[in-house]
Amino acid sequence: QGGGSAVIDMENMDDTSGSSFEDMGEMHQRMKEEEEEEGEAGAAEEEDGEFLGMKGLRGQLGRQVADQMWQVGKRQASRAFSLYANIDILRPYFDVEPVQVRTRLLESMIPVKMINFPQKIAGELYGPLMLVFTLVAILLHGMKTSDTIIREGTLMGTAIGTCFGYWLGVSSFIYFLAYLCNAQITMVQMLSLLGYGLFGHCITLFVTYNIHFHSLFYIFWLGVGGLSTLRMVAVLVSRTVGHTQRLILCGTLAALHMLFLLYLHFAYHKVVEGILDTLEGPNMPPFQRVARDIPVVSNAALNTTAKAVALTL
Amino acid sequence: FAGLADVSIAEDIPVEGEITVPVGSRSPDEDYSTLDEPVRDTIMRDLKAVGKKFVHVMYPKKSSALLRDWDLWGPLVLCVSLALMLQGGSADSKDDGGPQFAEVFVIIWFGAVVITLNSKLLGGTISFFQSLCVLGYCVLPLTVAMLVCRLVLLAGSGTVSFIIRLIVVAAMFAWSTLASTAFLADSQPPNRKALVVYPIFLFYFVISWMILTFTPQ
């Protein structure tokens, strides 16, 4: 009678920890329910013994019905919760091998030649997610070495917001455009394509945040950025029909992708004398424009020297 | 009511057996016994458990003590101490003191949650809080590195101190990553270990980078 059963519920057994409080909570709950039912059954029997007849029986029946309804309702609610709040919905998109990830990373830099029949896009989210996090880490490194000061907000918040905002926002926008232009691509495939396209960005920024020559950056921008953009554009072109639609879709994607790389380089990579001017005020004579190949160590030395010079003036 | 009286089971069918759940019969007694003990015993028991786990992190052997009795006290203490030590380390310490503490806190917990979700999605057999516990405890070498860096920076901030700090932070970063890999990678299918190790590497790399670029003003 009632919900407490002696059968072990197998769906709770995938947890190998002996002391996780989820299991303890379940067991305590079951114990409490069994005790309550025993108590209720005992009380009902006593009542039945004293008041023989309809009243005692109806009370016991009513209590059991209410109990049953509570059990059923609770079971349904917990089943609905475990259905929708389950991360298992995302599990098929993470089903990759390391070899596959490496192959896809390398392929993202090689533009395909055949654009006459639709190219296959793997709908996988592990690679893109890791690339976005890597880009966040590289951005953080770039911001720290260039002493970027962000007033209302944090460095980490800005980096995460920028990278995830680009990945999710531009994917959604291009998916919307693809829907308008009748291109055959799903949302997960678009997320995957754009995510792997960020591999070129990661390489470019990693190199140019450490070696500060503007001409080197432009070479990398055109070369590496261009290659990954070409690959994304070629895949999209192979899945779209019609010249105008192809032009709109690929033009937008190419423009956004290349401009994002340009933005990342210039917005988070300030030149030294800009910061020093704002710190020291108008007393400081302006420095010569130097290339930003000053390592972190002599930055501190430069700051202290500048302070000392300002004090003596 | 004669018909209803026959609802009960007939006498000649024996119904016997024992359905006991050992945990249930023990738990009411245990509650009473730990409630009555002095507060000092409770605190010392928890402190000893945390200390034992610290030792396990510094000498990562294949023991399962860290996994079986997980707790989040150690990670909280480490996170708060690391965040406090990383505070006040920018050019404009007047209005950057607040966000820096929150920044470190959020990075550590958000990063640990993401790594845990990732390892679960890749088919790991470890539970959510066990993974959080391991990742939090493996921040201990980096906290030690932060202490050393602060002491070295007291002495001076030239090239030599930078090299010393770089070596110490790099060594502690490798130790952290290896320690957490030793605990977490066993719960994955064997050919996907690299997929789980990379986010852990990135996570400790970001923390090490924050420690290395810390310059007090």
UniProtKB/TrEMBL annotation, chain A:
This is Protein YIPF3. Involved in the maintenance of the Golgi structure. May play a role in hematopoiesis. Belongs to the YIP1 family. It comes from the Eukaryota. One of its GO terms (cellular component) is plasma membrane. Its main location: membrane. GO terms for biological process: cell differentiation. The gene is Yipf3. It is found in: Cell membrane; Cytoplasm; Golgi apparatus, cis-Golgi network membrane.
UniProtKB/TrEMBL annotation, chain B:
The keyword Transmembrane applies. GO terms for biological process: endoplasmic reticulum to Golgi vesicle-mediated transport. One of its GO terms (cellular component) is Golgi membrane. Keywords: Membrane, Transmembrane, Transmembrane helix. The gene is Yipf6. Belongs to the YIP1 family. This is Protein YIPF. It is found in: Golgi apparatus membrane; Membrane.
